[in-house]
Amino acid sequence: MSVVSFLVTLSESYYALAQSVNIIQNSPSNSKLPTNAGAREGERRGENNFLGSPSEQTSGCVGGIPKSFRTARALPRSGDSGQSSTPIEKLRGIQYIVRMRNRLTDELAVCGLNAVIAVSEYHPEQINRLFLREDRLPGFTKICKNLAERKRPYKICEDEELERICKSTHHQGVVAMILLPDVEPLSREDIDAWSREGKTGIVLHSVGNDHNLGAIIRSAAFFDVKYIIISENDEEAKLSTAAYRVAEGGMEHVTVRSVRNTAAFLRSASRDLIAIGTDIRARQRIANLPDIIGERQKKTAVRSGVTVRPGIAVVIGNEETGLPQPVKDACAVLVRIPGTGLMESLNVAQAATLFMQKIFEI
Fold first, then answer.
1. Where are the alpha helices (DSSP H) in the chain?
2. 191 in helix, strand or coil?
3. Do β-strands 107-111 and 174-179 pair in parallel, antiparallel, or remain unpaired?
4. Which of 75-89, 244-258, 285-299 has the highest mean pLDDT?
5. Domain 184-360 has CATH 3.40.1280.10
6. Domains 107-179 and 184-360 are alike in CATH topology
7. What is the spatial distance between Cα 326 and Cα 306, in angstroms, rounded to a whole number?
8. Which fold has domain 107-179?
């Protein structure tokens, strides 16, 4: 096998591998990409950068792609200075050999129009990179300007590339890459503020579904529920791309915290919060919530001399198994949603929404 044939075979193999992980970029659409300062200079130098760590991004990005996935030196063309006149034109279109680096785990793709609008409006500093369809550009000029000022990239993409970036067909023409959210443990200060402000929170014990989590957060933002508490042991209910998308922007209006042991948390916070557990076999009904909360309010007034609405924690369990007995025992009261009996229970997000709406009107 000749050297040229070997190079062609090797380069084609790398090219196929690179395409399969979406890290090669030779699209003609690059010519219309809006880029940050220094992008054209990067192109002139033969740099073709791909998704990588925000900390390694510089103004020398090309098409909104950072230098952490910087390619090897561009393959030489015939006639280049210092190069032989070997017919390397056979490699035209295979311009770069890329080196994969696993630096994507510190970012999360947020997709969906309302979700990205909310992040860009309330927490623009969290966005490291933005990918959007050309028809979406007029609605994101402000965040694009912000990204350019921070020397962060944005890029015009077609639907196929957006799908590859966020691993979803429901991107609605825009994807923002943000730092992976860090859910902090619930602190004593959080509980004090929760109680002092008389806010409502939803405590989720093993709900096991990020779509349900997103739907609950959407309702929480709508009904002024400030706190969402998730279990550290729940591997499914995480702040994922799906959760952000389903929340429709609600993620920017709630405080998400975690606890290691739900029952222990409820016991320790029993003097500060009224824990209302959900149970399909409970004696109390959701219609009794005004009386339940009013009674707790009276007790608080007697103890402190001040009449304020108590902090409320609505405890929701898994759709199939409900709340475990230790968690039920730690609740001040158990409440059910009455129905026809044809269905054993509601979806967890539907049940949580009914509780939030009822408490909101009290």
1. 3-20, 39-44, 113-122, 141-149, 159-166, 188-196, 210-222, 241-247, 262-268, 289-304, 325-330, 348-360
2. helix
3. antiparallel
4. 244-258
5. yes
6. no
7. 32
8. 60s Ribosomal Protein L30; Chain: A; (3.30.1330)
Percentages (nearest 5) of helix, strand, coil residues in the chain: 45, 15, 40
**276 close to 292: Cβ distance less than 8 angstroms:** yes
Assess whether pLDDT exceeds 80 at residue 110.
yes
As a whole number, mean pLDDT of residues 210-236 equals: 93
Full strand arrangement of the beta sheet holding 174-179: 107-111, 174-179, 127-132, 154-156
User: 4, 90 in Cβ contact below 8 A?
Assistant: yes
Q: What angle do CA 285, 361, 355 make, to 5 degrees?
A: 40
| Predicted confidence band of residue 344 (pLDDT cuts 50, 70, 90) | confident
Q: Which two tokens stand for residue 125?
A: 């500093």
Reported confidence tier of residue 303, pLDDT bands at 50, 70, 90: low
> For position 256, what pLDDT does the model report?
97
pLDDT for residue 305: 59
Contacts 24+ apart (CB under 8 A), 85-93: 86/3, 86/4, 87/4, 88/4, 88/7, 90/4, 90/8, 91/7, 91/8, 91/11, 93/26
Judged on CB neighbours under 10 Å (0-12, 13-18, 19+), 91 is: middle
Instruction: Tell me the CA distances in angstroms from 23 to 31, 99, 101, 103, 162, one per residue in order.
Output: 18, 9, 10, 13, 13
Closest-CA residue to 42 (of 58, 22, 29, 31): 58
pTM of the predicted structure, to 2 decimals? 0.70
Both structure tokens of 221 = 């933002």
Residue that is written with structure tokens 């602190």 in the block: 187
- The amino acid at 297: Q
Q: Where are the domains of the chain?
A: 3-91, 107-179, 184-360
